[in-house]
From TrEMBL:
Species the sequence originates in: Ficus carica
Xref: Gene3D superfamilies: Transferase(Phosphotransferase) domain 1
GO cellular component: chloroplast
Name recorded for this polypeptide: Protein kinase domain-containing protein
GO terms, molecular function: ATP binding; protein kinase activity
The organism's taxonomic lineage, starting at the top: Eukaryota, Viridiplantae, Streptophyta, Embryophyta, Tracheophyta
PROSITE patterns in alphabetical order: PROTEIN_KINASE_DOM
Amino acid sequence: MMLLPPPDCLSSLRLVHRPTPLLFPSNSGFATRTRTSRLCKASLITNSDSFEVGRLIGSYGFMNVTSYSGFPSGADAEFSSGDMGQLRVQDVGEGSVKIRLYDGRVSQGPLRGTPVVFKVYPGQRAGGSEADMMAANELNTHAYLQSSSKGVYQNLLILLGGFETVTGEQWLAFRNDGKYSAADYGKIASEKVSNIRAMGESASWNRFEEEERIKRRRNFVIKLFQGAMKGLAYMHERDRLHQSIGPSSIVLNTIAEREAVYLVPRLRDLAFSVDIRYSFLDENLVSSLSEGLWRRASSSGAFTPMDKRVFGIADDIYEAGLLFAYLAFVPFCEAGAMDSLSLQRLLESTFKLDIEATREYCLADDRLLDAVKFLDLGDGAGWELLQAMLNPDFRKRPIAEAVLNHRFVTGAVL
């Protein structure tokens, strides 16, 4: 039997054999709450006959934090200068939930012909209760965000509906707004760098063309990051954390750098999203999907609802900082010269989030020079932003709106 979502959420999809529109059941105890009743007005397609399923286009799993230890807390805790800034220790393993992706389209109703991507969560027999919980959380988060009186924001992927199969699989149907992710873009861009460098001098005879190529890449990367941060700012403004933002969680409608003017990045993968409304923080409503976040908050001295909210937002900003580092390095380096895990290890373990020391190290590696030059724009504006987003003190990290207004993100340095 599928788990019910947290008290702020709507009931999960429940469609077996002859589907009935039970995505927002009128008899749900959750739907009668004042604070969530307007969510039932969301118009999602809940009839499986309204969809046509196409080919399998991919699959992926989630990483799972299996244990945690942090610095001691309290007035008697002692820290050496070397301890400050070190990250908490986590044992990370591959989670049991495997997601499948299919293409398809809406086959009936006013949205007939609309292309969709199905995100399929396994039933309890294959994925356990965690799979049901993640599917329900993703559904409820999208329904909440899409019910905003200000309308649906363009930098979030749009959920059109979904259904449950007789085997318990949860099929969520998202509007198909692009087949590439930021991770795909980074991989393809780095391969182009490798190909150009492999050609040697024959590839650089036209200095003007080379400069234009670098300018286009810089502009594309900034617009990509800007779109991701707009989506995150929208979520934070509406009291939701993303909690799994990264290169793979950003959908792109184009990866052609000459088409940067048409680029619309959209956030996806909201299965681990967390509600940070004060009413829920006051009630201390914690699910297994968010307990790791609140353990980290407690270890960092965030106990009150206000401090926990600030910590949660800062935690998202930290992950967005790692995304920024990825976008600043990988597309400008040869394939294999840098990847997300190596970059994170370099920043966190080798240099303990000392960005100036990181720059000095990268400056000595010819393979990383184009990335260094990119972050050097505006008298080091990129490094300045990276240091702010990865500040070891969560209270000193900027909010998403401040990141968007930073001169590096506005493009003023280009």
